[in-house]
Amino acid sequence: MKQYLNIFFVTFLSLSIFGCARVAKEQNLSWDKAYNSSTKERFFPLELFTGGKWDGKHELILNEVSNTACATISGNERPCDNYYTTGPFKTEVNNTKIEWAGNEVSYYRRTFSIRGEEVISFFAINNSRDGLVRIYDKREPRGARTYTGLGSKFPLGYWKQGEVRTYSSRAPRTIEIIELDGPDHCLTFRWIVGEGKGRNDDNNYTFCPGRGFTNILHNNE
Prior knowledge:
alpha+beta, 2 helices, 3-stranded antiparallel β-sheet, 15 strands
């Protein structure tokens, strides 16, 4: 009886490993195909931001996700910080300038802690449909703020290496692609607010498939 149980366990384990390997291979193929060598463009799906599984379709759809990303700060020896992304949710009304969204705006909710205080942000596809933008942010000591949806915090859709786009907002937001398709298909981009003089107004962010947000570099420290 023990021999049969051992055979069953080994068979079950082998099938599980094979199944996981097959799923991982399919995911890698999806990310491999995100880059078009003829146009030298890469497609950034929402799943690169959320860390969720991507089916490889070049569509911007807010699929259900509940993920924890762990992001480090370059030059800082402390452990990585956890960022929790869940959703999608919908606003009751559209108080933004995201015209294509209609009467409601679909968004992801991201939370993390800084100096012991919880930060809550809502991210939606922006009005130009080429990025994710914050439409709500709550943190101490400044409290809650709402945003128009005209800027961008994360690039979506088709971008090229070194491409720069600037968005009109309360202060102009600029995104520059630093590394379009790095190791493990990770993306690194630079995000600047206005002239980028504030501590958090000029940063490099790295996001990786299956993980989401992994690193931040403050350029003006």
